[in-house]
Amino acid sequence: MADQRLNVGDPAPDFTAMTDSGDTIRLSDFRGKRVILYFYPKDDTSGCTTQACGFRDAYPQIEEKNAVVLGVSPDGVKSHQKFKTRHNLPFTLLVDEDHTIAEAYGVWAEKSMYGKKYWGIERSHFVIDENGMIVEAAVKVKPEESVKRAVAALG
What we know:
Keywords: Antioxidant, Disulfide bond, Oxidoreductase, Peroxidase, Redox-active center. The protein is α+β, with helices and mostly antiparallel strands.
C-alpha cells in the first residue's frame, strides 16, 4: 500500500477530507499558507496525545509563521471531536477512515505488535509551503521530535 515516499521538493498530493466538525476541506484550500500535515495512528493514545498537545502548545508560534496544523488519523468525526475537546486542540483533525490520504503520502504501512501484523499509520509529518510543495518530511518520527522538527522547518 505505502509504495511511495514523498520527499522534500515533491508537490504535496491534494486531497478532500471531512473535518472534526463535519465540514469538507481540500488541502489546496490552504494555498498561500504553510501547512503542517501530521499523521498519527489513533485518537487518545499516549504517543498521539503527546504529539497533538505538542502542536497545541506550539500553535501560537505556528500561526505567527503563516501556518496551520492539520492532524490526520483513521478515526471518525465523533472520536476526533472528543479528542479535540479533551485536549483543547486549536487545529483541525481530518478523518481518513479509508486511509486514502495516508496512502497518498506513503505512510500507510504494515506494522507489527506482539507478533501480530496489521496495517496502520506510521507517525509522520509533512511541512508544505505556500505553493503546495513539501519542505520537510519525517516518517516514523517520535511524537516530541515531530513537533520540534515541524516547527523548526517553518523557520
